[in-house]
Amino acid sequence: MTTYFNEMTGTGGDLRLPYARLQDWVQSMPVELRTLKQAEAEALFRRIGITFAVYGEGGDPDRLIPFDMFPRVFAAAEWARLEKGIKQRARALNAFLVDVYGRGEIIRAGRIPARLIHENEAYEKEVAGFVPPKGVYSHIVGIDIVRTGPEEFFVLEDNCRTPSGVSYMLENREIMMRMFPALFRENRIEPVDNYSEALRRTLASVAPAKCRGEPNIVILTPGHFNSAYYEHSLLADLMGVDLVEGQDLFVEGEFVYARTTEGPKRVDVIYRRIDDDYLDPLCFRPDSMVGVPGLMDVYRSGGVSICSAPGAGVADDKAVYTYVPEMVRFYLGEEPILNNVPTWQCGKPDDCGYVLANLADLVVKEVHGSGGYGMLVGPKASAAEVEAFRLKIAADPDNYIAQPTLALSTVPTFVEEGVAPRHVDLRPYCLVGERIELVPGGLTRVALKEGSLVVNSSQGGGVKDTWVLAE
Amino acid sequence: MRLTVDHVTTYRYSQPVRSVVQSHRLTPSVHEGQKSLDWDVLVSDGVPGGSYRDGAGDRVQGWTVAGPVTAITVSVRGTVETEDTSGVLRGYRESVAPGAYLRETEATALGAGLRDLVAGIAAADRLELAHALADAVAGAIAYRPGVTHAHTTAAEALTLGEGVCQDHAHVLIACARVHAIPARYVSGYLSATEDGAPHEAAHAWAELHVPGLGWVGFDAANRCCPDDRYIRLGSGSDARAAAPIRGIARGLTSAAPEALDVVVAVLASEQ
Questions:
Q1: What residues 359-388 of chain A have any CB closer than 8 A to a CB of chain B?
Q2: ipTM of the modeled complex
Q3: Which of A46, A58, A135, B216 has CA atoms 20 to 30 A from the CA of B99?
Q4: Are residues A297 and B60, on separate chains, in Cβ contact within 8 Å?
């Protein structure tokens, strides 16, 4: 029987300090009040309109992600170490991107196989030889972290393109503060609402060489059918910038312009929430209806900045992930503060043999997959599911990696019977521009099903407010 | 050899379009085998956009035309001094690693026919192998204009057994990949031969990467390596990626499509 680290009570049952004041809070809340509060929270979420379409499950696309009121808490010292590790990783990932699109030193040094980079679908030939402003490819790095003990943290994956979910970090806090103002007086909790200002600052700091004066920033969304549209509009609102779709932008001469009621307005920085493939039908997919024709020519000639930079995805590929600790050593000359989860690459014959022999104990993921789809959680899977996966791996080993099932930490969570431990992960959003900034906190996702280790919102996951306590 | 190029492309729209955006790879590559003496690209009513050398070493130039317009003319005129380098691309600056040209595209995807075509082809070294593959492609696809179109894939062309230079290049790229040889599509010009035999002045061929030599051109359509009759413009994974002109007209409808007219003359001039 696996023992799980409970972030409130440890493994021994003694109350851990960061959660000290929450003990009283829970005990002072009778079931009726809790039910009332939970309904209030849900009404608030509905009113602000934060919903998340759930792919592949059918039903109501505007379903709310369940919000659990029990906060997840980090002590100042715990966070200080996480922060160092997260920033270190974000720096290394960006150094790697500049390198693989430039001289490729890490490949020449034999520290990462050339094949893994150059034949990778996410490697964009189109940007080879190009250094984006300030040498930053990934401006918002979402790093998924799990915990297995008081000091044990592991990075599950990096998201270097356009990680979503930060709107939940902001709204979860907003709603908690509205519903439980006393909690925020009793606990010294670091604020997260400065995220939008930090994001704006980050984007402005990477304005292109040809930009004059205060950069004009826009958020480019694929449109309101996109599951994260709410987040796009929230961030635009909070930053005070325009939210645009491809058809609102056009290229003329050396620049990109937005159509506005006052006429065309030059755009300097595009925070895009669409994939590389759809950015510019002249350069990438010709059938893209959500991109801007000619955008890449303007970008490459220094007329506009695109965040994240096209090509950033090669750093968050699950096969490349294995080499991130090596990147930290190679570019920064430091030892990684955050560890990777041991990973077997099925593309390597030895690894593949091990994976196939131990499928029932492992988690298997598609190299390019996301959102918890197309993955096998060995210990939770039926024999038939395991066998089906065995065939898939054998047919296309390069497409799969495997990891041990980790004993994910738990945080007390409100359930029907009262309060019970549920497994969690954490996605902080690290901002990289002229400076590197990290808002204390992030998005805590919680697997609401008892015993479940899958926290994805598409697989029955919920969210929690994440606190970092001040010293 | 001194080659003069006169290349005019006209787009006609039966209904006025709101605007046109184009991306050009219409500038001769800078390498030992060729040197531009003069070179001009003009777009009627066009505003030049950003210009840069991309990772593959091509000079890219954006253009926009504010509408409404009913026709656009892209005129390319110039003179290039060429030298025979036996197809070897020497003194050329680029930053894309050859390995990036091992990924297949829709146009160069492998079909069963392609595997059969290269099965049994072996050679002592990669250069010899590249020649053998180019010969096999030349033998498998007879030159015949009009049977294939812009979107014909390598697999389809091979099944037909006929095609034009684009098809020869796509099939050769696909065959090279079977042998793990990086290969890419090159677009450019080919001057007329003295005997006046029919040829494609707006031409395309393939480059295969050979250790020690670098990129080497193979024109399977003409069973040769590019020499001083060729002008190299740009490259890409396939014909679309290497297209000298890529463009989009806003306001184009299927009811009122565009009509395209291309006139190319490439002549060897007296020294």
A1: none
A2: 0.94
A3: A135
A4: yes
